[in-house]
Design brief:
The complex is a heterodimer of chains A (about 120) and B (about 110). Chain A is mainly beta. Chain A contains no helices and eleven strands. Chain B has about 110 residues and is mostly beta strands. Chain B contains no helices and nine strands. Chain B has strands spanning about 10, 20-25, 35, 45-50, 60-65, 70-75, 85-90, 95-100, 105. In chain B, strands 1, 3, 4, 7, 8 and 9 form a six-stranded mixed β-sheet that branches. A three-stranded antiparallel β-sheet of chain B has the order 2-6-5, with no helix packed on it. The chains are: A mainly beta (about 120), B mainly beta (about 110). The interface between A and B is medium-sized, with 24 and 26 residues.
């Protein structure tokens, strides 16, 4: 299973960031699919997860500004972050997730750096 | 609670054994998973729960749990084990996926 993020690299303050994760070796109709971000030099922050036909789950601290969605025809999933600011500057990773009593993320994409600047 | 607490940094002599810990109330109800991250790279899953090691991960990495603390043990640390280690689990409500702040490992 391989995941590959794609995105703009640079986004202006107050605009919308759109990222896509292309999945190969697995179907996005199975498993949880997740976005995680990491500000440069900082720790990891879970953003959102989605399970086909079941639902979406958001970090409450970001839920008012983010949307995660699936495109089953392209075997991809996406993240939209609205009204971005400097605090949204980070490496964004996509990952397959297993969410139950036992929770883990595997595998991960290589990550894509998004810089928010005016 | 909504926190998983890790020591910011640890060091170990080459070939020695060390334990990296992750503490949080939610670990009484949910298992932890562990990740290694090297500079410029994505995290890699090392261990999850108390007896699950992904294929390709050396058997010197193992996990355990007791009460509100999960631990990752590296038995016989190697130079290539240097990097950042993160734990992950859920918060006590079960609605939030969490990561610990990370532990930077130096192999001396």
């Amino acid at each position: 299973v391989q995941l590959q993020e794609s995105g703009p690299g640079l986004v202006k303050t107050s605009e919308t960031l759109s990222l896509t994760c292309s999945v190969s070796g697995a179907s996005v109709t199975e498993y949880y699919w997740t976005w995680v971000r990491q500000s440069p030099g900082k720790g990891l922050e879970w953003i959102a997860s989605i399970y086909y036909g079941e639902g979406v789950y958001y970090n409450p601290s970001l839920s008012s500004r983010v949307t995660i969605s699936l495109d089953t025809s392209k075997n991809q999933y996406s993240l939209e972050v609205r009204s971005v600011n400097a605090a949204d500057t980070a490496f964004y990773f996509c990952a397959r997730a297993y969410i139950a009593v036992l929770n883990y993320f595997d595998p991960w994409g290589h990550g894509t750096l998004v810089i928010v600047s005016s | 609670s909504s926190e998983l607490t890790q020591d910011p940094a640890v060091s170990v002599a080459l070939g020695q054994t060390l334990r990296i810990t992750c503490q949080g109330d939610s670990l009484r109800n949910y298992y932890a998973s562990w990740y290694q991250q090297k500079p410029g790279e994505a995290p890699v899953l090392l261990f999850y729960g108390t007896d699950n090691r992904p294929s390709g991960i050396p058997d010197r990495f193992s996990g355990s749990a007791s009460g509100d603390t999960a631990s990752l043990t590296i038995t016989g640390a190697q130079a290539e084990d240097e990097g950042d280690y993160f734990c992950s689990s859920r918060d006590t409500t079960g609605n939030l996926l969490l990561f610990g702040g990370g532990t930077k490992l130096t192999v001396l």
